[in-house]
Design goal:
By secondary structure, this protein is of the alpha+beta class. The chain is built from three helices and ten strands, in the order ααββββββββββα. It has a single domain, classed as Beta Barrel (Porin).
Length: 211
């Protein structure tokens, strides 16, 4: 698993040669089409299996180069028992972790045949994490907080169906930098399940049908 993670982490660097850049530049000369995707990524925080959910919008050129922006958040409760000082006494509370970040992304599809394609998507995440709990009056209190920066490369295989939809799956790795400790291990492998909707193709076909 560690060797796979290292390959995914450094693939964009080791393969950023002139030929690759020329191919990307050639594809980006094609007219862009809007894209929209729902994102579901499985991963781990400390020893717990979690789900990260998100949405992405962007542009696609020639079905090969895609870029845009999105938002992702932690969709699985990550809880633990901690002691806090409240009302002059120490009590044990159940804390919950919160995580959310904006995700600029870039993806290059290096293989296409029929309904199948294989791509290397890379996204970064800029946002924040916190650990919260409910006080004696039921109000949410923040116990810890941190700025979060992520780098997350992956490899994804996609299958297109019903003309305007595609499902995909892949593996990646999440590398996280923070300015404060949330007392959780955030660096971890990522497994991806996603749904894409080809709004650009649907809109183009609709325009042609009404002309």
């Amino acid at each position: 698993m560690r060797s796979i993670a290292l390959i995914l982490l450094f693939w964009p660097l080791t393969n950023a040669n002139a030929q690759l850049l020329d191919s990307i530049a050639l594809f980006t000369q094609e007219p862009p089409k809007p894209t929209f995707s729902l994102d579901s990524r499985g991963s781990f925080i400390s020893n717990q299996n979690v789900r990260l959910l998100g949405v992405k919008v962007g542009l696609e050129h020639a079905g090969r180069v895609r870029y845009g922006i999105g938002y992702s958040f932690l969709g699985t409760p990550v809880e633990r028992e901690e002691q806090v000082q409240e009302g002059g006494a120490t009590r044990t509370v159940t804390t919950r972790m919160r995580l959310g970040y904006v995700t600029p992304f870039f993806a290059y599809t290096f293989y296409r045949r029929g309904p199948w394609e294989v791509s290397i998507p890379v996204q970064i995440g800029i946002g924040g994490g916190s650990v919260v709990y409910d006080d004696l009056e039921g109000r949410r209190q923040k116990l810890k907080s941190a700025f979060v920066f992520l780098y997350e490369p992956a490899m994804v295989v996609q299958y297109r169906f019903l003309e305007y939809f595609a499902v995909g799956g892949g593996l990646g790795y999440r590398l996280v930098f923070t300015n404060a400790s949330l007392d959780e291990r955030l660096n971890a492998p990522v497994y991806i399940i996603g749904v894409r909707i080809f709004f650009g193709d649907a809109y183009r076909d609709w325009q042609e049908s009404v002309e």
